Amino acid sequence: MATATTLDVGKMRIHILDDGVFVTDAGNLFGGSRKASIKGAMHPVLVEAGDDLALIDAGFGPELPEILVGRYELRRDEDLLDHLDTAGYAAEDVSHIILSHLDADHVGWALSPPSFPNATVYLQKAALEEAREMPEKDGLRAAVPAVEKGVEDGWCELLDSDGEVLPGVRVEVRSGHSAGHQIVWIEDGDDLALYTGDLAPAKIWLDPDLISGVDTDPEAARRNRIEVLSAAESRDAPVILYHEPGDCLVRVRQTEKGFESIPIED
Ligand SMILES: [Zn+2]
User: Fold this and answer.
1) How far is the CA of 175 from the centre of ligand 1 (A)?
2) What is the pTM of this model?
3) Which 8-state DSSP code applies to residue 37?
4) Interacting residues of 87 by C-beta distance below 8 A, sequence separation 6+
5) How do residues 110-138 score in pLDDT, each as one tens digit?
6) What is the dihedral sign for C-alpha 165, 172, 260, 40?
7) Could you report the per-residue pLDDT of 95-104, keeping only the tens digit for each?
8) Axis-axis angle for helices 144-153, 125-133 (nearest 10)
9) Which among 127, 142, 230, 231 is placed 20 to 30 Å from 63, CA to CA?
10) Which of 213, 178, 220, 211 is nearest to 197 (CA)?
């Protein structure tokens, strides 16, 4: 049995897509000089919501961003657009794109080049503001020109709080990994699913005490991780883990040491 890649939430259908895997030195994620390499998947999420089609996060894009060459290796036979096609859709069909934050592994197809001609891109204003303050070589900073152009041209909308992007598709600001980082709750009636973005992107992050070198505010990340995963558990909501190379669709249960995951299979 394999992890399920589609999920129904009330009348909405969710497809978990794929943009390949990256391999990087663990030191890039946890700081220090660990020599072990670490592998992460990228699982953008497609939500069929009535006549609308929303994409949550957008992988690396057509190729590894220049800023990461030498530090990251990208492996894939099929990319996000191939997986979109398999799900039965074309790039033109996507109407809404929600970006959890501006890291290069989340914004690629949405910003460089914008691969979805009919979509409006939604992100938090605070995410743009933080990215503007980053050093020249930072991955967040690299997204700034494209976002500014999107705002000017009208295909990028800056949000300044929690709210519904579509009926039943609600963003919630949960900072820590970065400022203005947003998670997404997908809800219809009693059914609910959670997209955690980089707040808890893989099973290893279900341990709230894991301090990641890539969280700009580790204490806020820890607190938000516990609150959000507890909320998902209390509603028995499936959780989609963007960077999990194994079971990327799970339910979570609180344990003495954090949270454990139970895979949701086909
Ligand atoms: Zn990420």
Assistant:
1) 14
2) 0.95
3) E
4) 15, 17, 46
5) 997 789 999 999 999 999 999 999 988 78
6) positive
7) 999 999 999 9
8) 140
9) 127
10) 178
